[in-house]
Amino acid sequence: MNLLVQAASSDDGSFNGPSINEFFPPTLFTIGGLEFNRIIVVRLIALLALILVFWLGTRKMRLIPGRFQSVVEMGLDFVRVNVAEDLLGKKDGRRFLPLLTTIFFMVLFFNLTGIIPFLNIAGTSVIALPLLLAIVAYIAFIYAGVKKSPKNFFKNALFPPGVPWFLYIIVTPIEFVSTFILRPVTLTLRLLMNMVVGHLLLVLFFTATSFFFFTAGSWWSLFGIGTFAFGFVFTLFEILVAVLQAYVFALLTAVYIQLAVAEEH
């Protein structure tokens, strides 16, 4: 927990709350001209953990699975049934399942680093990764639409059928912004801001706990008990948020793909 609980008091004994500077940490080391800070290291750890979990869960597949294989299969089936096939059907669901599965578990593992001791910051709490995943989802949306209807995809997206021609002056710019600009932006910001706010709140609770217990002392420690309780409860809530954000990101990606392959395109 020492990486989460920053210095809660300054030299004059006043309380220092969390800062946005925590998302721009200094460089820890450099390899071949590449700089690695705390968040990059956290992302690498999450990526290695993700690879390790699926390698261990699938390296010796059995007809009657063991516990670990069962857990991995449950996670894969959850994405297949509740995200891919539920929205895209079996044919398109199977086609885009690798992408949706990768997005779900990548977001999940990178989110969960925010509550793991000694890591204590989500790998998705800096814009680069959420933006990259949103761009991948955006490219998949465009690809699916063009593959389904090469000639009519952009036409139908920008000039919806059945609209009086004179209204296209208003409708077309709105459709362009909402379909081709706001979708990747909202995907990025929804994930990013949830992880940023969650981290700041956790830091606030636990730095306040440290301040009340070790700096203020005396009867102020009673407040420390309260802030620790809030921090513990909010940690559990952050686990739920991490799972929900992974599900929402994968689900919205599937929704956009479904809209792209709909018959009217």
TrEMBL record:
A Pfam family: ATP-synt_A
Domain of life: Bacteria
Record GO terms (molecular function): proton-transporting ATP synthase activity, rotational mechanism
Membrane topology: Multi-pass membrane protein
Keyword Transport recorded: yes
Primary role: Key component of the proton channel; it plays a direct role in the translocation of protons across the membrane.
Family: Belongs to the ATPase A chain family.
NCBIfam families in UniProt: ATP_synt_6_or_A (TIGR01131)
Protein name: ATP synthase subunit a
Organism: Leifsonia naganoensis
Biological classification of the source: Bacteria, Bacillati, Actinomycetota, Actinomycetes, Micrococcales
Gene that specifies this protein: atpB
